[in-house]
Hints:
Elements: H1 4-7, H2 23-33, E1 38-45, E2 50-58, E3 61-63, H3 65-70, E4 79-85, H4 87-92, H5 105-114
Antiparallel strand pairs: 1-2, 1-4, 2-3
Amino acid sequence: MKQVSEVIPWCEDWNKFIRRGRCFDNAIFVANMHSCVEYIEGYAWNDEQWMHHAWNRHKGQEFDVTYQFHAAHLLDSDRCIEIVGTVDNLRIQGYVLDTLFLVPLVEQRYRVKAGLPGVIVRK
């Protein structure tokens, strides 16, 4: 997997926004900074089990700022993609991407299919 600076322009000041254990927020942050960067949500193998995780992609190059800054030994872990898209594209599909109360998109998808409240669906 590539380092973020190998894929997109990266400002050192943004490092302070990349927090341990906040992969969904981190990946949304990066996608918001660069509108052409895709947000990816799925699962990553952490040497013991599959973990729900989020990372990014730009022009076919995947990168993971959470693991890059906080768990570098997992950067090349196996991954399974569930949802992918730019922030604008995902919002058009009805996903809520607010990092103040971010519900992972995989969960949002299942809640929408089950007819549960709490997720805004735009048509």
